[in-house]
Design goal:
Helix content: 25-40%
Shape: globular
CATH topology of one domain: Ribosomal Protein L13p, Chain: A
Strand order of the largest sheet: 5-2-1-6
Number of helices: 5
Distance between the termini: 34 Å
Largest sheet: 4 strands, parallel
Number of strands: 6
Radius of gyration: 17 Å
Structural class: alpha/beta
Order of helices and strands: EHEHEEHHHEE
Length: 147
């Protein structure tokens, strides 16, 4: 038996719309990362980008458990002395709700060139409207959460 490896012409990409309303952040990010990588497909290959496009709507309504709103921090450094910044999850959700989901999903993808290529297929929107209605196939309309 030979190992199957899909060719670029055999890869088909679907569009999935995931509603983040009331979904726990980690479970949602894990589900989205699986769809982006293509692990739900029988033609999955870890060295190729065989995943689908994912549109996440209502990012501002994602939920977290415990005291993560105040205790979870996002850190960055400008590279200059005194350039260390820390922002809590509560502040990040108020100012940039899309970045919370993007950051969580990016951490679950490979930290390589392939991971950056896969990440480009993620589209996150704070509200319920998105401009990708023409790409989304009718059979894959809305997936409610990570199941």
């Amino acid at each position: 038996m030979k190992t199957y490896s899909p060719k670029a012409s055999e890869i088909t990409r679907a569009w999935h719309v995931v509603d983040a309303t009331g979904q726990p952040l980690g479970r949602l990010a894990s589900h989205v990362a699986q769809l982006l990588r293509g692990k739900h497909k029988p033609t999955y290959a870890p060295h190729l980008d065989v995943g689908d496009y994912v549109v996440v709507i209502n990012a501002e309504r994602v939920s977290v458990t415990g005291r993560k709103l105040t205790q979870k921090m996002y850190y960055r450094h400008s590279g200059y002395p005194g350039g260390f910044k820390a922002v809590s999850l509560r502040d990040m959700l108020q100012k940039h709700p899309t970045r919370v989901i993007e950051h969580a999903v990016r951490g679950m993808l490979p930290h390589t060139v392939l991971g950056r290529q896969i990440f480009k297929k993620l589209k996150v929107y704070a509200g319920p409207n998105h401009p990708h209605g023409g790409q989304v196939t009718p059979g894959v309309k809305k997936k409610e959460g990570a199941q």
